[in-house]
Amino acid sequence: MKRTELLLLVLSSIGLIGQIMLVPFSAEILALSLNFLAILYYVFTLPYFLGVPIKHMFKKSSYKDISKKRIFGTIFVGFGLSIIIIGIMFKLLLLPGAVEMLTIGTRGILIASLVLLVKYLRDKTSAFNHFSLVRMVLVLIIGYTVLLIPSNLIVQVFYRDNPEFVELFKEYSKHPENEKLRIEMEEAFRNLKRSR
């Protein structure tokens, strides 16, 4: 599983670098790798973070030595991580809803990280999972960073070869209530995607 995670992170980095360098199909590589990473965190949370083999993930006996609080917390963490990953993808691909997903996901993971840290500081002999905390903090930092990057900057970097679209996006950002401008911007975005 850790190799799968590493492969998806490498692929998403390649997609992001390709987007910055204006390489065709980079957005697709970025979207697919981030989607699969989100699925990994969402669907395979229990085996991934609790060390349960995938072939036994649906057997109740696999979780008999694990407390219900830890199982619930692990599911919460997996859900939060996947929301952050999808939010990052939405923000980088200029899709609506990115800010909301990043805000919800980062707040949830921040709370989970603090709970895990406090639990460890209270009882240093507890089953503290460094692996989980490191993942949560890294995704949290990346999520907050992407959340703070203005969409205009993303457009200026990813679409610098099309200054008309950049100006149209800036104008739409100033006046998001303008329906005519929204339709014009969406049409320009579709044409831009077709031409790449």
Folded structure, characterized:
- Helix 2 runs antiparallel to helix 4 (68-92).
- The protein has helices at residues 2-20, 26-43, 45-50, 68-92, 98-122, 130-148, 151-158, 163-174, 179-195.
- The chain is elongated.
- With 196 residues, the chain is mainly α.
Largest sheet: none
The percent range for helix content is over 70%
Structural class: mainly alpha
The proportion of residues in beta strands is under 5%
* Contiguous helical run count: 9
**Poorly predicted spans:** none
Total beta strand runs: 0
Order of helices and strands: HHHHHHHHH
- Rounded to an integer in angstroms, the radius of gyration calculated over CA atoms is 20 Å
Cα end-to-end separation: 34 Å
Shape: elongated
State mean pLDDT (0 to 100 scale): 88
Quick recap:
With 196 residues, the protein is an all-alpha fold.
What are the key terms here?
196 residues; mainly alpha; 9 helices; 76% helix
SSE blueprint:
Layout lengths: L1 H19 L5 H18 L1 H6 L17 H25 L5 H25 L7 H19 L2 H8 L4 H12 L4 H17 L1
Helix pairs in contact: 1-2, 2-4, 4-5, 4-6, 5-6, 8-9
